[in-house]
Design goal:
Number of domains: 1
CATH class: Alpha Beta
Structural class: alpha/beta
Number of strands: 9
Largest sheet: 7 strands, mixed
Order of helices and strands: EHEHEHEHEEHEHHEEHH
Helix content: 40-55%
Radius of gyration: 17 Å
Shape: globular
Strand content: 15-25%
Length: 249
């Protein structure tokens, strides 16, 4: 596969973790074949995920210990801040449970030279999902449809976590204003990226449901997303410039 002109070492992958002891070693080992740096943001996992990563002693891997379970949103915000301070040019986000494929991320890195945001998409031609129950598929597809209608976002997969952001785009955002804790964070990020008018490309990916550990999806996460998207939709109608004033530095 053709490599990007930009050195992979200018790129970092952020991985939030909570009780991923069964999968994290394999994911980091495979991901390290791309010659990228990795930042694990751990929410004080009771199963010792953070300590397992530290014992690997990989030069390209660092750990942020959050100290408590704060959620995927705050974890990514912490990772973004560290990545910006360290001067990375591209910042990727990826699940730590093995659901995302390293080969997909490699293809996305190549595309990221031409776009400010590259989104891994399961629900476009060439994309797929394995081992998901029907209700999970319905939640994901409805979530994207609902958010797309409410927020006027024309994308086919707004809830996926495999993405690459250009650091210059992230640096335009007031990260303190992003408040989603659960997977609604993924929707909020594209909402913000659209406000700053960054270029976005969706790339088909193959998502494989985790083989180890327990899914973090819950009714609370789903309800948070529904409530927030509904409020944002109303704000879009009645407060046209509110998003830009709220999110952009």
């Amino acid at each position: 596969m053709q490599e990007s002109a930009l050195s992979m070492k200018n790129r970092v992958v952020l991985m939030p973790t909570y009780n991923e002891a069964d999968s994290i070693v394999g994911v980091i080992t495979e991901l390290s074949t791309l010659d990228v740096d990795i930042i694990v943001i751990d929410d004080n996992s009771p199963d010792g995920t953070s300590e397992i990563v530290k014992k690997m002693r990989f030069d390209n891997v660092s750990v942020i210990d959050h100290g408590s379970k704060k959620g995927i949103g705050p974890a990514y915000i912490s990772g973004f801040k560290v990545a910006l301070n360290k001067g990375y040019s591209k910042i990727a986000t990826m699940d730590a449970d093995g659901s995302h494929q390293v080969l997909d991320l490699q293809r996305m890195f190549i595309e990221s030279d031409s776009y400010e945001v590259v989104m891994g998409a399961r629900w476009i031609e060439g994309g797929s999902v394995s081992n998901w129950k029907v209700h999970r598929i319905l939640i994901s597809r409805f979530g994207t449809w609902f958010a797309g209608r409410c927020l006027a976002l024309p994308y086919k997969d707004l809830t996926g976590g495999l993405r690459i952001y250009d650091a210059k785009a992230i640096s335009q955002i007031n990260l303190e204003t992003i408040s989603s804790n659960g997977y609604c964070f993924q929707i909020e990020m594209i909402r913000v990226i659209s406000v700053i008018k960054a270029s976005i490309k969706e790339i088909p990916i193959h998502f494989i449901e985790r083989r180890n550990g327990v899914s973090k999806m819950s009714k609370v996460i789903v309800l948070e997303a529904f409530a927030r998207v509904s409020i944002w939709g109303l704000q879009r109608i009645f407060r046209h410039n509110a998003d830009k004033l709220h999110y952009v530095k």
